[in-house]
Q: What sequence folds into this?
């Protein structure tokens, strides 16, 4: 890469701190939002994991509970890095080791969260739309093996985030477009857009099947439709604005207009904050996935909201 490109497009830590100082109220707001997401998300996910381990005993339960447990584990591990992110919104970090570790956790666990959300939706789709495809369901029922495979694969794909500084360490600092950076971005966009299209497809097929069904498993289909639609909405709210702004931000690496780059960087930082919201929304999806989980969670943490009705004697079959 030629020297002119390096000099005109690489921002130093001082430039990053200047942007924060010039927009201090905005970045204090961003930091506060991330801090609030950390506190609420950690408390909420701890209560969820308590239900999975001590009440549901997920390892003895159905396939979907193992996937959901891995999803809550991914959310908790993602939350661990949020205090560093909140600090970086007020003070540009010069500790590259801490930065790389935080980014590794961010990429690994956001990727895991997306992967397990997708697997849960695919499992529900095949269970209610194609129950006759036993070979596919037999594979999906191997949830422990699939879960280990997802974590290992994502760990390998996330290693490049540890090898150098990264555009999101402080969004006003940019990497050179090396091969490693390009490969990293391909992985990032692939793990968001491909699952999103898969989820939209599953949602549309379930809705279509629901319209064609007049008797039988109509209630089960409705529950599956609500779950998959909920996952699509979480994606659309938390990940798509973040991904699109990231694409614009990367495109601005080759732009020599610093003010425009800074404006895009501030918008990008805002959508980064929004992307962490999935750690608060995922527990709603657990309730949509399982009426048993919902009843247990409400009875433990909100006993006053328990309906005075006879409890259901059976849980959904999937």
A:
């Amino acid at each position: 890469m030629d020297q002119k490109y390096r000099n005109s497009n690489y921002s130093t830590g001082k430039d990053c701190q200047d942007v924060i100082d010039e927009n201090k109220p905005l970045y204090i707001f961003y930091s506060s939002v991330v801090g609030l997401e950390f506190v609420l998300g950690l408390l909420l996910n701890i209560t969820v994991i308590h239900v999975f381990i001590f009440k549901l005993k997920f390892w003895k339960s159905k396939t979907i509970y193992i996937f959901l447990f891995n999803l809550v584990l991914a959310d908790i591990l993602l939350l661990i890095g949020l205090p560093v992110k909140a600090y970086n919104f007020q003070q540009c970090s010069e500790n590259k080791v801490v930065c790389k570790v935080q980014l590794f956790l961010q990429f690994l666990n956001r990727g895991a969260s997306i992967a397990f959300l997708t697997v849960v939706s695919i499992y529900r789709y095949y269970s209610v739309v194609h129950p006759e495809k036993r070979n596919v369901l037999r594979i999906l029922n191997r949830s422990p093996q699939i879960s280990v495979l997802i974590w290992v694969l994502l760990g390998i794909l996330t290693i490049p985030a540890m090898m150098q500084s990264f555009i999101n360490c402080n969004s006003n600092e940019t990497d050179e477009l090396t091969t490693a950076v390009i490969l990293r971005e391909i992985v990032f966009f692939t793990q968001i857009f491909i699952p999103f299209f898969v989820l939209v497809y599953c949602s549309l097929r379930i809705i279509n099947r629901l319209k064609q069904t007049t008797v039988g498993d109509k209630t089960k289909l409705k529950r599956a439709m609500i779950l998959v639609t909920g996952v699509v909405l979480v994606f659309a709210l938390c990940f798509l604005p973040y991904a699109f702004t990231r694409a614009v931000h990367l495109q601005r690496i080759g732009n020599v207009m610093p003010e425009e780059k800074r404006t895009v960087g501030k918008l990008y930082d805002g959508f980064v904050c929004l992307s962490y919201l999935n750690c608060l929304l995922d527990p709603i999806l657990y309730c949509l996935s399982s009426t048993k989980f919902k009843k247990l969670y409400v009875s433990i943490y909100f006993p006053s909201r328990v309906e005075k009705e006879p409890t259901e004697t059976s849980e959904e079959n999937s």
About this structure: The chain has one domain: 11-299. The chain has 15 helices and no strands. The domain at 11-299 is CATH 1.20.1070.10 (Rhopdopsin 7-helix transmembrane proteins).
